[in-house]
Design a protein that fits this description.
This protein is of the alpha/beta class. It has helices at 39-45, 65-73, 86-96, 119-124, 152-158, 164-175, 191-198, 251-257; strands at residues 2-5, 15-20, 25-30, 54-59, 77-83, 108-112, 132-137, 176-186, 202-211, 220-227, 234-235, 239-240. 41% of the residues are buried.
């Protein structure tokens, strides 16, 4: 990922324009505040393994990194970015207005909506039933024991609330078509909550642990599941992000991070 600062931004509202997928798309992000997208979003996007026309929802999209990465890699993907924060939704719209994103801008839209809404309120907010082939999500991951940040935007993106996975996965189950795929990235400590929230909505849960280096504990998990499936849970081979002490990505992670490959499921 390369970085170019916007020299016209006011200091209090500084922002950057960051290149992803080796320049195939660019993202406007807040500088010095809020959540800044990186490898987590790119690995999440890599869980969408599809060819041809596909409809994708990115829940809690932030500035839109994961959804835009899907659109950049899959030329016929139609993506909707759902984001509750007006500030972050504005960054996503700024990104789509960039000339560098002309190849994806007509296939990506932004809707300001609370993804935890239920029933008619959810549908009225622009989250209709049985619409999408894929739903991706990177829910807030900090629990109540974590040190809280004074940064409002970052707090909104990171602060986990009770029942969060149940709320988000319930919405994913509603808006996905039968047989559609849920994909998410989370902390390993959330595995039990994810399994419980999938319940009878999703089956075929596949979990992949992400380890910084060989011999180190996992810091993230990638999870995919299929709406209506009755397949059993699978623990997939782990992904090691770095081969050694250096900061370079391992070959597979580098391909996933730069949109050259997808992480296909092992089953349905």
């Amino acid at each position: 990922m390369s970085l170019v600062e916007d020299i016209h931004a006011e200091p209090a509202r500084a922002e950057t324009v960051d290149a992803f997928h080796r320049g195939r798309f660019h993202l406007v992000q807040p500088k010095g505040r809020g959540h800044r997208a990186g490898v987590d979003a790119m690995l999440l996007a890599a869980l969408v393994d599809a060819a041809g026309p596909v409809r994708v929802a990115d829940l809690g999209a932030g500035a839109g990194a994961a959804g835009m990465a899907v659109a950049a890699r899959i030329g016929q993907a139609q993506v909707v970015l759902y984001e509750r924060s007006p500030d972050m939704a504005a960054y996503a719209r700024k990104s789509l207005a960039l000339a560098e994103n002309a190849a994806i801008s007509d296939r990506v839209s932004v809707i300001e909506a609370d993804v935890t809404l239920k029933g008619r309120a959810r549908v009225a907010a622009g989250l209709p039933d049985d619409t999408f082939d894929h739903v991706v999500m990177n829910p807030p991951f900090n629990d109540a024991d974590d040190r809280r940040t004074p940064d409002r935007l970052k707090a909104e993106a990171h602060a986990m609330t009770e029942g969060l996975f149940e709320d988000w996965i319930r919405t994913a189950g509603a808006i996905l078509k039968p047989g559609g795929q849920l994909s998410l990235i989370a902390r390993p400590q959330s595995i039990a909550d994810i399994i419980a929230a999938c319940g009878r909505r999703f089956g075929g849960l596949e979990l992949t642990a992400l380890h910084p280096r060989p011999g180190e504990d996992a810091v993230r998990i990638l999870a995919t599941a299929i709406k209506g499936s009755r397949a059993r849970l699978r623990l997939r081979p782990a992904l090691v992000i770095h081969d050694g002490e250096a900061h370079a990505f391992s070959p597979l992670v580098d391909d996933l991070n730069n949109g050259r490959a997808a992480l296909a499921r092992n089953g349905r």
